[in-house]
Design goal:
heterodimer, A: alpha+beta, Gyrase A, domain 2, Alpha-Beta Plaits, Elongation Factor Tu (Ef-tu), domain 3, 3 domains, 6-stranded antiparallel β-barrel, globular, B: alpha+beta, OB fold (Dihydrolipoamide Acetyltransferase, E2P), 6-stranded antiparallel beta sheet, 4 helices, 20% helix, 35% strand
Chain lengths: 367, 127
């Protein structure tokens, strides 16, 4: 833990009673009051998360559009300036290097927001793919801080602290110069919980003032600080993938069920040939939902169809919202049919698990 | 942290309360606090005979599964079924909500356990 990096909000977390853990090299709160309370606050009111560990890379230059188009699977030409696309970047084999958000300022400037655990790997990958493009890449991960405010009351709360009308920021759009507590912030209507909400980026030196301003406005309305524990249960219920669980260098976005973010009809991009071939041949594996009879199916537990091991659990929880034991699993495509009964190996026992849809929780986005 | 005087404790943060030849086994306040919200308890079968330090079940918080270790050998006579419907009871009162009830095989084994004072000192070192 001594070696873990602290975000600018570290002392605030400690003062709020946060239970600090090492999350891929970052000292961050897994919870404050309790994961279940924080989860419920986000589903019914609002929660605020420190997500300063996320990585930010700016792409500048005349070749920025072509570079990003080649790097990622989604079609960035189809989004407008001020809009955001969720996407993945693949290796040539079609495995996922990372999933990310692409913020389009204009065709010569993009902001790529990447996972904390992958910052160095991603940045090296981006640089290695930039040779033939007229671009400048800047890794600003160490100077940018970020909080996410999520939940049905997120807009009402955040509106009290900003100098713009948040109705003007549509789903997956952003405004780059909004002021909170005197700090210039980028605000987007994005998140990782399945609820409406915003992500607020600012310089490290300004994030404490921004956090306190939002907390002050939101506490009377039920806003709670929320930790990584609730962040994971919330994103899981909404079937949003986590890199390292649902995604990896060896899992394709098609296998992960992210086909709508893979535009095979756009011109060349890294991994396109492998993904086209995979689609034509039929996917070897599929990501499915499972409802488990009893117990909890955790990440890595093997999944069986009778005697045959057909895959593994990628994430599983006792769903705080649905009060059922559910899981996401990556299994051989031949054993992925909805309604089928598989078995999850939970310690010594094989527990029956029914294949269900992945939409455990219906997302409440404001679109 | 709450520690009850009349119980015996293990370094794995289980407690046992002795009533004649019967023992009630649960997890301590320290343990429930460290685990966080408990969402599932996996019990042994009634009539299972286990030795001291055997795993008698699993307790799961939102984030993780932890083995439950038996303080002394014994035969399971009852499991606390109330925890099936509401495992969070272990958080709200870890000493009232025992997990299993055993017939103790050898009361001599109780001597190997920590008393309240020794357990409290052990927890202070852990923190």
């Amino acid at each position: 833990m001594e070696t873990a990096k602290k975000t600018a909000l570290y002392d605030v977390h400690v003062a709020l009673g946060g239970k600090i853990i090492d999350f891929s090299g970052w000292a961050l709160p897994v919870q404050y009051e309790g994961i279940l309370q924080e989860h419920e606050a986000v589903r019914t009111k609002a929660g605020i998360f420190d997500v300063s560990h996320m990585g930010e890379v700016d792409v500048w230059g005349e070749g920025a559009m072509d570079f990003v188009q080649n790097l990622v699977t989604n079609d960035i030409e189809k989004i407008a300036d001020g809009q955001i696309a969720y996407t993945v970047m693949c290796n040539p084999e079609g495995g996922v290097v990372d999933d990310l958000l692409v913020y389009r300022y204009d065709s010569a400037h993009f902001l790529l927001v990447i996972n904390a655990a992958n910052i160095e790997k991603d940045f090296e990958w981006m640089k290695s793919q930039s040779g033939s493009f007229d671009v400048r890449l800047e890794n600003r991960s160490d100077s940018v801080a970020e909080v996410a405010i999520q939940g049905p009351l997120a807009q009402e709360i955040l509106q009290k602290s900003v100098d713009v009308n948040l109705d003007d920021i549509a789903f997956f759009h952003f405004m780059p110069e909004v002021h909170i507590a005197g700090e210039t912030c980028l605000i987007s209507r994005t998140g990782y919980t399945g609820e409406d909400g915003f992500e607020v980026y600012t310089r490290q030196e300004g994030i404490v003032a921004v956090f306190h301003a939002i907390m002050e406005a939101g506490t009377p309305l039920g806003l709670k600080p929320a930790g990584l524990g609730a962040r994971d249960t919330l994103r899981f219920e909404a079937a949003l993938p986590l890199y390292g669980n649902e995604l990896s260098d060896e899992i394709s976005p098609l296998e992960a069920g992210l086909g709508i973010f893979v535009k095979l009809d756009k011109k060349a991009f890294i991994g396109k040939e492998a993904l086209v071939a995979q689609k034509e041949k039929g996917l070897p594996r599929k990501t499915i939902g499972l409802e488990i009879e009893k117990g909890i199916a955790r990440h890595g537990y093997p999944v069986y169809d009778g005697e045959l091991c057909v895959g593994h659990v990628t994430t599983g929880y006792q769903s705080p919202t649905l009060k059922r034991s559910i899981a996401l699993a990556l299994v051989d495509a031949d054993h992925a049919e909805k309604g089928k009964t598989l078995q999850v190996q939970v310690r010594k026992n094989k527990i029956p698990a029914t294949v269900v849809g992945k939409r455990f929780y219906q997302k409440n986005y404001k679109k | 942290m709450n520690v009850l005087q009349e119980l015996y404790y293990t370094k794995d943060h289980e407690w046992i309360k002795v009533d004649g030849t019967i023992g009630y086994v649960g997890i301590t306040d320290f343990a429930q606090h460290a685990l966080g919200d408990i969402v599932y308890v996996e019990f042994p079968e009634v009539d299972d005979t286990l030795e001291a330090n055997d795993t008698f079940g699993t307790i799961e918080s939102v984030k993780a599964a932890s083995d439950l270790m038996l303080p002394v050998g014994g035969t399971v006579v009852e499991v606390n079924e109330a925890l099936e419907d509401d495992p969070g009871l272990v958080n709200s009162d870890p000493y009232e909500n025992w997990i299993i009830k055993i017939e103790i095989s050898d009361p001599e084994e109780l001597k190997t356990l920590l008393d309240a004072k020794a357990y409290e000192a052990f927890c202070e070192e852990e923190e």
